[in-house]
């Protein structure tokens, strides 16, 4: 069942279109990575889902309810962490965690204390004295000690050090194994790679790819470096082969993943003496999208 769903979601600020026809679906028990460059529309989408912004067109639903008109009902079952947490300056971290908990109908005290330890937070300090990272920790502890069904996290680890990033990742996985659903907007690719079952890539207000990481990797190319006894003939005529560079006996080129098998079969006829391949990294894939050279646009994979 879809826990969260947007259908043709469009948001205009005056003449500026921030979102155009955004379709997203988060299934129960899934961690969905929401990624894309700065200004792409991630936070705008999330604000609509939280009922803070009203969509210009289209629908945003959580638990089958309307994000705008049923916000009160929805908020009983969700926890939200933004990338820039503002807290009551004169309350201590511990007080704020409990206040968030009370707003959400109570928290698990044991879980709260355990998380304070794991995140190494001193809850007795006034929030005005906390660094950015410590403010993030307060919000994360409040979120993960609440019994939400859906966690909406918008760049939640900005400002966390690498050790705390690991704690955060463990918390997300624990929530997932407990059957919770998580929408995670992030620029940290290792985080996305480690945590997300599926990702959606947004650019200039439009979703340009959605799928599992494996599905997205399939759309990429592998780099090959080959040496053969006899010169390879007709390589440039093979479908999916690009960027051929010959240096003496060595030839290097790129192959679309879907054509890899037939290309390998072909070159094996020429007596392969050396074969090196580098798999496309997730980073290569994301960079193509971030820079706007979407795979569809460069002709790989044939999606549009
Ligand atoms: N209240 C507003 N009025 C006018 N334009 C806005 C408003 N809020 C957002 N925008 C614009 O909408 C676009 C999407 O912004 P959004 O904050 O959703 O991006 P984002 O994907 O979250 O980026 P980042 O990765 O930097 O957080 C941006 O061009 C932004 O300037
Ligand atoms: Mg944002």
Question: Could you characterize what this model shows?
Answer:
- There is one protein chain.
- With 304 residues, this protein is of the alpha/beta class.
- The chain has helices at residues 42-49, 71-75, 93-103, 109-118, 132-144, 162-177, 189-195, 213-218, 260-267, 282-290, 295-298; strands spanning 2-13, 16-27, 31-35, 57-62, 65-66, 78-81, 150-154, 181-185, 198-203, 206-211, 221-228, 241-247, 250-256, 272-278.
- It folds into 2 domains: 2-212, 3-Layer(aba) Sandwich (Rossmann fold); 221-279, YebC, transcriptional regulation domain (Alpha-Beta Plaits).
- The protein has 11 helices and 14 strands.
- Strands 6-7-8-3-9-10 form a 6-stranded mixed β-sheet, sandwiched between helices. It has a 4-stranded antiparallel β-sheet with strand order 2-1-4-5. A 4-stranded antiparallel β-sheet has the order 12-13-11-14, covered by helices on one side.
- The radius of gyration is 23 Å and the shape is elongated.
- The two termini are 27 Å apart.
- Bound molecules: adenosine-5'-triphosphate (ATP) and magnesium ion.
- The site of magnesium ion has 3 residues, from helix 1.
């Amino acid at each position: 069942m879809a826990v969260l769903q947007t259908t043709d979601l469009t948001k205009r600020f005056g003449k500026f279109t921030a979102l155009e026809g955004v379709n997203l679906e988060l299934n129960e028990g899934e961690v969905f990575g929401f990624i894309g460059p700065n200004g792409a529309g991630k936070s705008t989408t999330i604000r609509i889902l939280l009922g803070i912004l009203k969509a210009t067109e289209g629908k945003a639903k959580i638990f089958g309810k309307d994000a705008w008109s049923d916000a009160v009902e929805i908020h009983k079952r969700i926890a939200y962490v933004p990338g820039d947490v503002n807290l009551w300056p004169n309350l201590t971290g511990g007080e704020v965690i409990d206040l968030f908990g009370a707003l959400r109908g109570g928290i698990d005290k044991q879980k709260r204390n355990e998380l304070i330890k794991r995140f190494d937070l001193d809850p007795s300090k006034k929030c005005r004295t906390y660094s950015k990272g410590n403010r993030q920790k307060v919000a994360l502890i409040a979120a993960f000690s609440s019994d939400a069904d859906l966690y909406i996290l918008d760049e939640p680890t900005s400002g966390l050090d690498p050790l705390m990033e690991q704690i955060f990742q463990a918390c997300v996985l624990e929530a997932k194994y407990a059957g919770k659903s998580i929408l995670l907007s992030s620029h940290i690719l290792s985080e996305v790679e480690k945590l997300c079952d599926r990702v959606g890539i947004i650019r200039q207000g439009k979703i340009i790819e959605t799928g599992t990481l494996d599905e997205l990797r399939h759309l990429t190319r592998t780099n090959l470096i080959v040496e053969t006894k006899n010169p390879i003939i007709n390589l440039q005529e093979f479908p999916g082969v690009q960027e051929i560079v010959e240096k003496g006996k060595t030839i290097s080129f790129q192959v679309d993943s879907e054509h890899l098998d037939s290309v390998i079969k072909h070159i094996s006829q020429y007596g392969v003496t050396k074969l090196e391949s580098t798999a496309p990294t997730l980073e290569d894939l994301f960079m193509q999208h971030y820079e706007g050279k979407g795979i569809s646009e460069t002709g790989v994979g044939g999606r549009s």
